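Worked Example 4.2. Consider the chain below.
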Amino acid sequence: MPATKSVPNRKALTAFSVLAAALIAFDQLSKAHVRARLTEVGQTMPGIPGVFRFELVRNTGAAFSMGEGNQLLFVLVAFAVTAIVIAYLARSRSLSWGVTVSLTMVVGGALGNVIDRFFLGYVTDFVDLTFMDFAVFNFADMCITCGCALFIICLLAQAAREGRAPSADGQDPEPRP
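Applying the procedure from the previous section yields the following structure tokens:
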């Protein structure tokens, strides 16, 4: 029996819906707040000294501004990922809470950025780390990154518990020789 609780698919879909809506709402509220306070691209305001500041960036690309000008492609990819995750959650007999939360974070982040692309034509980025040279990002980007990391951790933890090789779908990995 697995060490973590599993979620029946109905509960997984409910948790997915509620958490995704909350993540999207927080993302949109944080971006709207920054756009109201910072009206010019490149304008900054203090955050935590030595850690981060807020800087308004209008990103028409994906991560690190790659693929600028491909808004439609990014929207289609986000919708495809969302559809795949919903289908996966619906067809899965049960999933760990970690897998459910991780996939929800990825989808919530992707849809948060899609809303910006659709209504603004760009993604509002605003978190600028001052202790290192890194791209400016937003809450949705954090959700996508942390969700992917959590998903990998969940797969590795499941494989370790069961003494099996990790499976890409998070279910019933193949036994190790």
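The first helix runs from residue 9 to 37. The longest strand covers residues 52-59. Compare this with Example 4.1 before moving on.
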